[in-house]
Structure prediction request, 279 residues.
Amino acid sequence: MPTNAGIEYALANEEYVKAGTTAERLAALKKMISTSPKHKSAEKLNAQLKRRLAELKKDIIKDKKAGKSKSFAIRKEGAATVVFLGTNGSDKTKVFSKLAGIEYKKDNEYKPEMRMMPFEGIWLQGIDLPVIYSGYASSAVAGPVFDMIRTADYIVYVCKSNAEVEAIQSELRKKEVHFQGKPFIVISSAENPEQFKKDIWVKLSKIRVYTKTRGIVAGKPVILHRDATVKHMADAVHKDFARKFRFAKVWGQSARFPGQQVGLGHKLKDKDIVELFID
Prediction:
């Protein structure tokens, strides 16, 4: 988040990330511009936002001229969103199909395809993006595709050479798609899908925490950032739980012993089980 950005900007940015259509993305981007910091150190941010708005409007006009009234934007789901990038003939769709556990039929070249990828009790959202070619950044469909890359949690380049990676990144730079430390990997195949998904999960810097109520552990975990505390979990479960908090009991890697009683500041670890006690 930019320096001194207020809550309104943060909420608008969240709307932009979760936008499922071009119209929603346009509305959220306008909110980001109106609520962004206006001090000198934020000039670069504001310039980027305005350029992105101009590009989005151009893409809308191109789509209308081409008779494309519907956007193929995909709403974010699951514990994390992983996008797959590749050039023509890179086996991108073959790798994607193997990780998603579906039958490979033919390469996906023209539009995003989404499949949920199962991994140890959670779902990772996988998106097989169209092939990236020289000049793709100027195409009518580049805007929504590049926005999916911007908002993804993890990027998989399926490439057979460094030249292919550079060709893709060259197109992304034309639209100012910058990753700012976003995790990525370059592969040519995925021989061990489960291990590969495990490697992705580790690099995502997220943890799975399970709630426990009256002796019953929830089947679906709460997804938190690494180094999250009991307070973060309480806030994720219910907005009032941190305020009404008395104590918690923890089972798992972060506990010194099963059922350790802890406070809000206790740091959690992956696959911990937490029972919250509130007033």
